[in-house]
Every structure is written in C-alpha cells, then in structure tokens.
Amino acid sequence: MHMQLWQSIPFFCIILPLGCAAVTSIMKPRMARIWATAIISIVTVLSAAVTIIYLNGAEPYTFMMGHYPAPWGNEIRVGMLEALTALVFSLVMLLSLLGGMKKLDEHLARQNHSLYCVVLLLMTSALMAQVYTNDIFTAYVFLEIMTLAACALIAVRKRGRTLVAATRYMIMNLIGSGLFLLGIIFLYDITGHLLMENIGDAVKHIAETGEYALPLKVVVTLMCIGLCIKSALFPFHTWVPDAYGYSTPTSQSVLSSLVSKGYIFLLIKIMYRAIGLDVIVKTGILDVLFVFALAGMVMGSLSAIRQNDIRRMIAFSSVAQIGYIYMGISLGTDAGMMAAMFHLFSHTVCKSMLFLAAGGLADASGNSKAFRDLRGAGYRSPIAGVAFTIGALSMVGFPFLGGFVAKFNFALAAMECGDIRTLLVLLVLAVSTSLNTVYFLRTVITLYSKPLETASYPVEKGQRGLLFSVSLIAFAAANVALGLFSQQVISAILRGLSTFG
Amino acid sequence: MAKIRSDYESGLFSRFLSWLTGGSTRLDDDMARSMDDQAGPARMQAQQSAHAREMERDARLAAMTEQEKSMYAHMHQWAQTKGKRFSTWLYRIAAVVICVSIIVLLVSTAAKLPPYGSPDNPANNEVSERYIEKGMQETGAVNIVAGMILDYRAFDTLGESNVLFIAAVTVLTLLRVTPSHGGKPSTSQLEAECDDRMYEPKNDLILQHQANFLVPLILLFGIYGLMNGHLGPGGGFGGGAIMGAALILYLNAFGFKKTERFFTYKTFTIVSVAALSFYAVSKAYSFFTGANHLPSFITPGTPGMLFSAGLIPYLNIAVGMVVCCTMYAFYTLFRKGDM
C-alpha cells in the first residue's frame, strides 16, 4: 500500500517534540520558551490538519514505525477519534504554556527554565504517542515518560509542599504503573502478542475456549485498576489536591487536564481494541468501576465544598469530574463511552482554563487564594473573572456549554441501560450537579461581591500580560465552541468509536 | 406581621449568605460590633448597662472557651494515645490483609499461566519465529536481541532512552544548586562544596591505587560491551552502565578536581544532547523511509563484522553515552548538586 504524504503527519506529531526536546536543554531560557511554543504550535496545526482531513471522511490506517510490518515492528494507528483527541491535547498544551508563561519567571529557579521546556516537549510527545500507538508496550514506555514528566512538573517549584506532593504522586503513580506492567506481562504470556489487534483476536479465542479464564480476569483487573490509580479515580485520589493545588499554573493545567486524560484514553483504547468490550463486561470489573465512579462524583464534590483555597477546590472538583468520565466508561455501552469521550474533551478544555484563571484572580488579590480575599477579584482581573465564570458554568452544566452536553449525554446513556444503573446514575447525577452548583456558583458570587473594607490590594490590576489574556480568551472560545458545535463533535466521536474496535 | 428576630445574624439563612460571599464569619462581626460599642456614645447609664452586659458575655465566652479547650485537649490526648494505637493497629492489619490477598491472587494466577518453556505456549508464535529465523538476515545483527530492540522495535527503545533522559532532567531540576554567575560561585555552591569536603573521603591511597588499576580496565570492558552489542552480549544500556561505574569509581578515588578536567555540566549536556539528537534524527529517517517504502542508505551489511547491522552499532554508542552520562550525573548531583 502506498502512503500519501498527509498520512505521515501523526508520525511527525510524535517525533518532532521528541527529537527537539534534548536540544532545548542547552538553550537560553527565552529561546527555549519560544522554541517550545513554536514546536507545540506546529504539532497543534498538524493535528488540526489531520482532524480536518478526517472530518471530510478519510479512512483509518496504520503506519509502520520502521521497515517491518506490524506484529514484528511497532506501528501507530490513526483514525477519527485519535485525530480529534490529539488536536484537543496539543491545543490545551499550547494554551496552558502560553497562559502560565509569565508566572514561570516567578516560580522557577533560573537554571530550570529550559529544563521545564524539555519536560513539556517530552510530555507532548508522550501524549501524542499514547494517543496514536497501536502497541501496548509502546504505550507503557510513553506512560513512563508521562509519569516522570509529571513528577518534574510538580516538583520544579521547589517548595516544601510541592516536594511532598511530588513524592506522593510518584509513589501512587509507580504503583499504578507497576500494576499495569504486570497486566501487560500476564497478557503477553497468555496471548503471545503486544499489538492490540492481535491481542484482540487471541483474547476472543481465549474467551471462547474458556482456557486461562482466571489470568484473563486478573489481567483486566490489573490494567483497569492501574490506570484508575494513575488517573485519580475516587478511592485512589488522595494525591490529587496537593499535586494539582500547589504547582505552578502551567503544571496545574497540564496535570489536571492532560496527564490523567491520556491514561483514560489509553484505557478506552485497550477496552475497545485490545481486550474487547464484551470480554471486559463479562469480567465484572466495570461494576467495580461504576461504584467507584459514583462515589467519586459525590465525595469529590463534598470535599470541594469544604475547601477554603480556590486551587484545592478546583482540584477536588477534578476528582468528581473524573468520576463522571469513569461512570460513562463503566456503563459498558457505546453511548456511555461516547458521553465519556465528550466529557473527557469538555473537562480537558475547562479544567485547564479554571486553573489558569484562578491563578490570575489570586494574583489580583494580593496573591491570596482564600475566598475571603478573592471578593471582588472578578472586577480587578476582568478577563480571568469572565473565563472562570464560563468554566464554572460549564462544569455546573449550563446549557450551550460543553459540560451541559456531557451531562445530558450521560443521562441519555444511562436511560438506555434500563436496569438499576439507570436509577443510580440519574440520582447521583442530580446530587452531584447540585453539589457542583453549590461550590462553583459560590465562588463566582464571591468573585463579584463587594470586597472586605479592610482589604487593600496592590494598585496594578493583576494583569499577567498579553499572553495570559490571549490564552484565556482562546480557552473560553474553545469552551463555548464545544457547547455550540456539540453535535458535530458527538458525530465525530461516534464515527471514531465505530471504527475503533 | 412577621416577627423581627433580634439575633437574625446567627440565623441559618444569614450564615449561608455570608459563606456565599466569601465566608466572613460571625466571630469577625462580633469583634467589629464590640469595637463599635467601645466607640459609641458615652451616656453613663447606657454605658453601665452595656458594661454589665459585656462582663456577663465575657464570662460566658470564657466559660465556653474553657469547656471547648478541655474538650479539645481530651480529644487530642485520645488521638495521641489510644487513637494512634488504634489506627496504627488497623493500618497494619489492613496492610497485611491487602498484601496477602494480592499475593494469593497473583500466585494463583501465575499457577494458571502457560507452563514455562513449553513449545505450545502462545508466546511461541510467528512473531518470535521470524525474530529467530530471519533476524540475522534482516537486521544484520548476530545478537538477535540487539536486532529486536534497535531495529524491529526501535520505536520503543527510542522512548526508553528518553525515559532515562527525562529522569536525568527531573533530578537536575531538583538537585542542581544555583550555578555560578559571572565567575563568582554562589553561596549554595560553596555550601555544597564544604559539605562534600566534610563527608567524602579524600586522597585514600589504597582506593587510588586500586582505581589506577581498575578504571582503565572497566572503561575498556564498557567500550567492548558497547561496540559488541550487535555481535554478542552487551549493548548500549549495559556498556553505558559499566562506563558510568568506572567514572564514579574514578571520582571517588581522586575527587572532583581531577574529573572536572574532562567532565563538567557542559560535557554532560553536550554529550547527551548530541547522542539523543543523533538517535532521534537517524531513527526518524529510518521510520519515515520504512513506512513510505522509500529507498534507504542503511543496509544490514555483512553479519558478524564490527561495522554491520545498519544503524545498530551507532545507536548502541548513542544509548551508551546517554546511559553513562546519566549514571555519572545522578551520582554527582546527589553528592554535591553539580558536576
């Protein structure tokens, strides 16, 4: 089969940031930032091009990484869903870097600026590889890069709290990686393959004959739990608030919206391509995930209400939103998976904007993150205030925004199930949404209420420069676009899922 | 007519309102009001009654505070003694139960896996068959493991070498002390230097003589492993680790003065950047030509020759350089935060 030129684009999306990362470490800080921004922009533009080609009806294909065809060599697979996810991930990466750039000067030691850019570039490459790879071991290698890069992103602001948070993050995530690796080893032993399609065929055969039933069940459990720990599903979420709460804004938004989503996308890919949804449903692991997800939706929101620090509140809200995504996945239907994918996008675009905006609002309030001092911050930093409001409304589920469409689709997917899960999902969805409303709208009201008379703020209005405003405006536009063009996005996701398995 | 309550501030609704708008608590309002009271009109009678009221309230508050304090002290004591013991106990039991159940699960799974070494195992399929039967012919590497990791599955190994690099970058961001600026060493640099002088041995004659003998041998063996990766046991990861060990031994015997002559932070960055860039660029070329079925100037050559097997020997050298530099850099960074 002859390849067309555009079909090499995803390969360049992976190899360009990977190849350019090393060289960044010897650049001067300013140069390194321009370089990293340029490369991530190129990746974004390339991903956008692939997405447009797929929206016009291209067929999925596989791309050989080297001279040897698939079961012997590595390969990547490109389709509608991969292209769309790659576009969202690279766009959010670019905007997060731009939005938090000014703050990096303050939070990072001078010698670490270019190293931070190295970490971001490797993270971009690992995310792209995670999205496109068709080989389960390649996924593990790039998952390792993501884990280490995430530790660096947390720890680079060398405070006591971030160091503790990075240590906890590393311990929890290494446990997750270890379980996932054990799963891959067992899976290789019983199927003899690492390529997802071949694993799928072998697993189908195993499920039919009933041989290796216990190992298969353990494999599914290990992989699911490993990735759940890494993406902070409810009972494994204890590392979240510190890790997300105290790092520098770019790190916050990359960690909360990209790293965990990369793992979730990998899980969905394994469920569809490697093991097969019907086999997964038979093992019963989805019921466990379902319980965890529902508990997370409520507990995350309850914890968020109790916080007095805006960043920790947003971090706990992430726990609840990850619960939503897992709830969609654990329904085990195409509709549930579609809702989960949509919420993955809407949460990715929204959470990074919330973290950046919260940073801007705190800056306009004498660098305090307590609600008491944030009163009136929406007037002092207008763009951040509006962006935060849009994000909060989207998370609450206000119509015309991404969060609403996601919740609506979760409810529809649950209606399709028609058993006890329908009732449970609808009930918990209602409770969780009202809890979301309580803490998000409380924050918005605080932002636009009269400041305390005793409080005084520095004269300059807490603007963090042009890039910050541009990034927030772009984020806000992306959120609104996701809500307004939700039908197109949903049909794209459905098309991607139908060709996924 | 609705009754107007005098204590409406303490009502549920008003407390909710104040929480909503940023959480100013009742205590602050009380304090503000008592300050207002002090600055209020100084009519004798009112003042006296206000004074009496205040005294009464103070007494009541003091009693409440006292009660609360004793309660907290009690709870604290419980948490420090019985509670601590209880939670430690619970924690240990839970840890043992979870560990034992995971061990039982994994061991019983391992017992159900295909028997070790049996020819009918699922893992003995067309994939490993081609690696073994055609590996040497296709990749030109006599050592088929090298052929597998650096040619068949080169993308994984490219990722793996970047795992090492990002580990080094992470340690650098964490441990590297502020470098000298404009020729003058920074205070943290001086402190690290002092610590190093204090805790690390200097000029140990026995160590130096041993190192004089051993370091060249180890280095030579490392280079042999590096260059021999495609012909026999060895390869970039192993050979690089051995070379790194030689450098660390040399540093321990002779101190930073000697190693700084040839290995500084600059050396580290230049060597690893050059190696990784060469790796990425050459492999990108190889992937691109492979995927698009373009002619490529990389050929397997004659298996068994030193320069054969296409890119493999060069990639082994690049990986070895990265591994060697990373190991040495880890050691020096943990020791004094610089190279």
Detailed description of the structure:
- The complex is a heterodimer of chains A (501) and B (339).
- Chain A is built from 20 helices and two strands.
- Chain A has helices spanning 9-24, 29-55, 80-107, 113-132, 136-155, 160-191, 196-209, 213-230, 240-245, 249-275, 277-283, 285-306, 310-330, 334-363, 377-380, 382-396, 402-417, 420-447, 465-484, 486-498; strands spanning 61-65, 74-78.
- Chain A has a two-stranded antiparallel ribbon.
- Chain B is mostly helical.
- Chain B has a domain at 142-336.
- In chain B, helix 9 (236-254) packs parallel to helix 12.
- The chains are: A mainly alpha (501), B mainly alpha (339).
- Chains A and B meet through helix 1, strand 1, helix 4, helix 5 and helix 6 of A and helix 3, helix 4, helix 6 and helix 11 of B.
| Uncertain parts of chain B | none
For the largest sheet of chain A, list the strands in their spatial order.
1-2
Q: Could you report the average pLDDT of chain B, rounded to the nearest whole number?
A: 82
Radius of gyration computed on alpha carbons of chain B: 36 Å
Taking pLDDT < 50 over at least 5 consecutive residues as the criterion, the unreliable ranges of chain A are: none
User: What's the tally of helices of chain A?
Assistant: 20
Major protein interface = A-B, 71 and 63 residues
String of helices and strands of chain A = HHEEHHHHHHHHHHHHHHHHHH
Radius of gyration of chain A: 22 Å
What structural class do helix, strand and pairing data of chain B support? Answer: mainly alpha
**Secondary-structure-derived class of chain A:** mainly alpha
Helix proportion of chain A: over 70%
Instruction: Give the CA-CA distance, first to last residue of chain B.
Output: 83 Å
Which of globular, elongated, flat, extended, rod-shaped describes the shape of chain A?
globular
Major beta sheet summary of chain A: 2 strands, antiparallel
What is the CA-CA span between the terminal residues of chain A? Answer: 22 Å
- Helices of chain B, by number, come to 12
How many strand segments of chain A? 2
The total count of strands of chain B amounts to 0
